[in-house]
Structures are given as C-alpha cells and as structure tokens.
Amino acid sequence: MVYETLKTRVRAALIAKYSYILQKGSGEKAEVAAAIRNVLEGILSQPRGALKEQERENIINELVDEFSGFGPIEKLMMDPDITEIMINGTQNVYVEKHGKKQKTDIKFDSDQQLMYIIQKILAPTRRRVDESVPYTDVCLQDGSRVNIIIPPLALDGPTITIRKFLKKIVKAEDLIELGTLDRRMADFLVACIKGKVNMIFAGATGSGKTTTVGVLSGYIGNDERTITIEDTAELHLGQDHVVRLETKPANIEGKGEITIRDLFRNTLRMRPQRIILGEIRSAEALDMLQAMCSGHNGALSVIHANTPEEVLHRLETMILMSGIPITLEAIHRQIAASLHLIIQQDQLADGSRKITRVTQVNGLKNGWVGLEDIFYYEIGNVVPDGKVYGRFRATGTEPVFYPLFAKRGFNLSKEIFKKD
C-alpha cells in the first residue's frame, strides 16, 4: 500500500513539475529517469520517506516505462512473439502468443494511469476519445493498430486492443515460412500483383488479411503511383511513389467527416495506377467495382467475410444499401466484369493463419457470378492439443485471366496449376 501510494505521489509530482519533458512524446528515457529520480529523492527526504533500494528502482523503472513507453505493457510491446494485446480495464490484460490467447499477471494502478496511456497513444494523431466520442481507432508509429473504447460504453473500464505490426513479415518467403501459403500459391499471387489482377482479400478479424495485403503490395512496381485509402492508416509500402489517405472523423460539433467513399472519389482524380482500399464497408463497394471496370487495374481491397460466396453476398448488400436503384442481376454483371480473384484467409483452431481458398471469378452462370477454386487448404487432422495438420492443394483449374500475365510481360508456368 505504501509502495503504490508513493508511486502515485511521484507520478503526480512529475506531471506537475516536469510536464515540459513529458510533452516531448516518447521522450528520452534517461531524461525521464533523471526527473523521476529527482522527484522521488525529494519525497524520500521528507519524514517517513524510507524505502528499500529495490522498491526505489522498481518505482523509477515502472514510471519510466509509463512516461516514455507504454507503462505496464511496455514489455509486452517489446516481445516479438506477442501479436495482440487486449486490455480489459485495469485488472485484466490478455495477449495472443503463438496464436493462443492467455491472461497475464499485469495490472494497472488505476483508471487514471490507463487513461494516461490512452492519451499518450492518441497524442501524435488527430483522434480523440471522450464522453462525446468514446471510441476510436489509431495506428502507432511502428504500424501497430489500436482500438480504444472507454466508459460509459466500456462498462469494466477503459479497454484497449493492440494488434502489433510484425516487422519480420515483409516478403512472400516470410508468409511461406509461417505456413500461410505454399510456394505455388506465393508465385501465383505475386504474378497476380505484377499482372495487375483485381483482388479482394477476405477473412474474419485477426485472420491476417492486412498483413498479407501489405506483403503482396511490396511487389507493386516502384514506378507506379499507388494510392492507399484507409480508415486508420496501417499499410506501409516501401515504394517511392505512394500516397496515403486516411478518413477524418467528425469534429466535436458533428461536422467535417470525410468518409472512405469521399476519399475514393477524390482518388480517381489523382491519376492512380494502383488503388489499395483498406476495407470495403459500405457504398464504396460499387465505386471500387466501377473503378476496376474503367481501367484502374491491379486494385486490391479487404473485406470481412467467411467464404468467397459470402464476399458476393456482402457486396450485394453494401451496393443495395447505397440507395442507388440497381438490380441484383446488374450487380452480378458488375462483379463479373471487374473482379478477378478472391483470397480467403482464416485463423485455424491452433491459432495458425492460412490462405484457405484462392478463388477466381469466372463470368456469369444463370445470371449469378460463378466462382471456382484454384488453390485451397485441405485439413487432414486436428490432434487433441488443437494442432491442425493439412496441406495446400491445387484444383487443376487454370485462371481465366491467365493471358494477363503475358500481356504484362510476366511469364508464369502453367505447371503450378496442375492438380495434386
């Protein structure tokens, strides 16, 4: 109790006396540590200020992490094996490690400490959270994605979900090593990028869609003007000619919102050679399909769906909700004329992430879009500890858009489509 009380006093005094250091953002750890030590020594010089040496160092280290890093979760942020951090109020912190979720023994001192971490996360961005806007999404400087929701919506206290950006996944070979796909699929998808095939990446939350899009986007030509459109900027492409656009939430008066659809319409006037849409959520689905039809080839986008068939259903619903008078038959004609490939990705029972289906759009059949799998993941066995065993297989189907590869000057052997 004495330890926590003293830590609270040091924190309050540090904010009051050394705010100019803390306002620097992440700040130099040595400078922050020196300020904390000065405050602590001043308090301990007063009566009843005795403290063990180890406790003294613990207070300094914990507050350094808090003011120059992410407080109690700083070590979790530094752990390369942790892919997700879930903070459910001050007393419950969970992580995803090696695909499995587990509870940690980490706790926050108070809601105030947790809210300080939230404000620290939001400081470099244009986002905010308060009673009028109690939730938001932001992206950290390292590319990690953060969702924040606070009371009164979050009943158990401020809640933060951090999906860490994995720097080690940058090439198709990295995805192969992780078991996300095999060599044939990787060669095919890289060829699709270079051949300017229009693709949608589908899957549930946490299935690895954005990571896969980010990796494959790295094979876009360095001389192409690429424009990314996202709610929260997550994609970090290495090419020189990249324009990154991000939506803007309404201000405190409820005005000034800029949506994905607004940005998409503006993008078409920016002479893009590639368009990457972070996520299709609403009426921009029709804008995207029309852009694909009008010469904007090689477009990539992400959608939440559990199967390629569900992708079609979601596109139908989004376009119908746009208010534009259009029939289902016309929607399917638009999809068939514009979209080439759906890449379905899933997180399996053992936590591994796999591309489970690579499905082509093959014209219309009785007025409805026809879908054909080119590759798929076949589950062979799931052992009692949850480990999934299976293999990637080719169906023997060749893509109807195969001539695009030669047209773009890219040679891809048809052997990779041979049925096995």
Mind explaining what this structure looks like?
- By secondary structure, this protein is an alpha/beta fold.
- It is built from 14 helices and 15 strands.
- It has 3 domains: 1-69, no CATH class; 73-167, Beta-Lactamase; 172-417, 3-Layer(aba) Sandwich (Rossmann fold), CATH 3.40.50.
- Strands 9-8-10-11-7-12-13-14-15 form a 9-stranded mixed β-sheet, with helices on both faces. Strands 3-2-1-6-5-4 form a 6-stranded antiparallel β-sheet.
- Strand 13 (353-365) and strand 14 form a beta hairpin.
Relative strand content: 15-25%
- How many structural domains in the coordinates? 3
- State the shape: elongated
Q: In terms of per-residue confidence, which ranges show pLDDT below 50 for 5 or more consecutive residues?
A: none
CATH class of the largest domain: Alpha Beta
Oligomerization? single chain
**Rounded mean pLDDT score:** 87
Helix content: 25-40%
Helix and strand sequence: HHHHHEEEHEEEHHEHEEHEHEHHEEEEH
In total, the number of strands is 15
Strand count, sense and barrel status of the largest sheet are: 9 strands, mixed
Distance between the termini: 66 Å
Rg over CA atoms: 25 Å
The H-level CATH homologous superfamily of the largest domain, spelled out, is P-loop containing nucleotide triphosphate hydrolases
Helix count? 14
**CATH architectural type of the largest domain:** 3-Layer(aba) Sandwich
